[in-house]
Amino acid sequence: MTIQIQNVVASAVFNQTFNVNAIANAFPWDTEFKGRFSGLIFRLKKPKTTVLIFKTGKMICSGGKSEDEARRVILTVVRKLRKRDINVAGKPEIQIVNIVASASFNGIIDLDRLYSEKIGDKIIFEPEQFPAAIYRMQSPRVVFLIFSTGKIVCVGAKKEKEIYEAVENLRLRLEESEVLIRS
Question: Domain containing 171: what range?
Answer without folding.
Answer: 105-182
